[in-house]
Specification:
The protein has about 80 residues and is α+β, with helices and mostly antiparallel strands. The protein has a domain at about 25-75: Double Stranded RNA Binding Domain (2-Layer Sandwich). The chain has helices spanning about 5-15, 55-80, and strands spanning about 20-30, 35-40, 45-50. It has a three-stranded antiparallel beta sheet, covered by helices on one side. Strand 2 and strand 3 form a beta hairpin. Helix 1 packs across helix 2. The longest helix has 26 residues, at about 55-80.
Length: about 80
């Protein structure tokens, strides 16, 4: 079973954009109830965010949102051309 993070990496590798991927991770809340927020960026531009009780889950949510946004952008580009 693949993960959103692997799917995003594979998608970007196919587009030759993997090296432009970066992450920003932040934690908030009390120690016993930390909430992680991850932001996925391509060329410094935010393409997805996600939150969760662990950094791994937050990153997975951000990757899933980024993939959805990138797919939507690709559909829009295809419809325009």
């Amino acid at each position: 079973m693949s993960s959103p993070l692997n799917d995003l990496n594979n998608y970007l590798q196919g587009k030759k954009k993997l090296t432009s991927l970066s992450w920003q991770d932040e934690e908030s809340g009390p120690r016993h109830e930390v909430l992680w927020t991850s932001t996925c960026k391509l060329d410094g531009i935010e393409v997805g965010t996600g939150s969760g009780p662990t950094k791994r889950l937050a990153k997975a949510a951000a990757a899933k949102n980024a993939l959805a946004k990138l797919a939507e952008s690709e559909e829009t580009d295809a419809a325009v051309s």
